[in-house]
Design goal:
alpha/beta; about 25% helix; F-box domain-containing protein
Length: about 290
C-alpha cells in the first residue's frame, strides 16, 4: 500500500526531532514524481530521497554545512527556501568550491546574517531573491554572488536591514525591475527613511531599470514631500532613455500608528501630481 501511494507522491513535508543516532528513512527514495520537499530538522544523515529530481526545496533548522550537503545532491532545483537556525554562525571550509545551481530562479534566505551560504553558491539563472537581515560582510557576499553568477536578477525583497546595508545590495543591481523593501520603525528612524528615499531620487545609477517599488511595514516616518519628489524624478522628470517607474506601493503594516488615517489622506494629496501623470499608486494600512 505504501509503495503504490509513493508512486503518485508529488509533494512531501517531513519534520524531525534532532537525534544523535537517527534511523535512516528510505520509504520515499523511490518516489518517481516527487518534486517538492519541505524538510525541518532533517538532512542527508538520516533521510534518503530522490534528490536529483527535486525542483523545489524548503529547508528549516539545519546547519549551514548540512544544508550545503543537501544542495550538492539537488542540481535541478528551481526554487530554494532556506531558514537556518537563529544565531547561526557556522563557517564553511574556506577551500569549499562554489556550488552551481543552473536552474535556480527563486532564492529565499533567513538567518544567514553574514552570507556564509551565499558565499558558496553560483545561481546563473536567478531572477528573484528574498534577503531578510544581511549585515556587513553579508552584503559583500551578496554583491560577490551577483558578479560570480553573472545573473540578470529581476526582483529583490529586502527586510530588516540598515540603510547602508540595503544600499550596498541595491547599488549592484542594474537589471532589477521590482524592488520590495521591508522596514520596521524600531530599526528605521525618520532620518533613515528620508535618506533611503533621497537616494532613489538623486542617484539614477541605483536601480536604473526600476519599474515597481514597494515599501512595506513602515510608519509615519515617511516624509511625504520627499516621497513625491523621488517619484517625480522616476516618472515625470525621467529623461529620454531612462526607465520610468510604473507602480509604487506603500504598506504601513499591522503595527502602524493609530493616528494614521489623517496622515495617509495628506499623503494621497501630496502624491496626486504623479498619480495624474500615470503612476499606479496604492497605500495599504490597517482599517482599525
Amino acid at each position: 500500500m505504501m509503495k503504490s501511494g509513493v508512486v503518485f507522491l508529488f509533494s512531501l513535508t517531513i519534520k524531525a526531532k534532532n537525534d544523535t543516532t537517527p534511523v535512516i528513512m528510505t520509504a520515499f527514495r523511490e518516489a518517481p514524481r516527487l518534486r517538492e520537499v519541505r524538510l525541518s530538522g532533517a538532512s542527508l544523515r538520516w533521510i534518503s530521497l530522490p534528490w536529483t529530481q527535486l525542483t523545489q526545496l524548503e529547508f528549516w533548522d539545519e546547519s549551514t554545512s548540512r544544508c550545503f550537503q543537501v544542495l550538492k545532491e539537488t542540481p535541478n532545483l528551481e526554487v530554494l527556501d532556506v531558514h537556518l537556525p537563529r544565531r547561526n554562525m557556522e563557517r564553511l571550509p574556506s577551500l569549499q568550491f562554489p556550488l552551481t545551481l543552473p536552474h535556480l530562479h527563486t532564492l529565499k534566505f533567513a538567518s544567514d546574517l553574514y552570507g556564509e551560504l551565499l558565499d558558496h553558491l553560483v545561481p546563473p539563472a536567478l531572477k528573484t531573491i528574498h534577503l531578510p537581515v544581511l549585515l556587513g560582510m553579508g552584503t559583500t557576499a551578496f554583491t560577490d554572488l551577483g558578479v560570480r553568477s553573472a545573473w540578470s536578477l529581476q526582483s529583490i525583497h529586502l527586510s530588516d536591514m540598515t540603510v547602508n546595508d540595503c544600499t550596498a545590495c541595491l547599488r549592484s543591481l542594474s537589471s532589477v525591475t521590482h524592488v520590495h523593501v521591508g522596514v520596521k520603525t524600531s530599526n528605521f528612524t525618520s532620518y533613515d527613511m528620508d535618506e533611503l528615499i533621497a537616494l532613489f531620487d538623486k542617484d539614477k545609477k541605483i536601480l536604473p531599470a526600476l519599474e515597481t517599488l514597494v515599501i512595506r511595514d513602515c510608519g509615519t516616518e515617511v516624509p511625504a514631500w520627499r516621497l513625491r519628489k523621488m517619484l517625480e524624478s522616476r516618472t515625470t522628470r525621467a529623461r529620454d532613455g531612462e526607465v520610468k517607474l510604473k507602480t509604487f506601493r506603500l504598506d504601513f503594516g499591522r503595527h502602524a500608528p493609530v493616528a494614521l488615517k489623517e496622515f495617509v489622506e495628506g499623503l494621497w494629496l501630496e502624491l496626486l501630481p504623479v498619480i495624474d501623470a500615470g503612476l499606479e499608486v496604492s497605500i495599504d494600512f490597517p482599517s482599525v
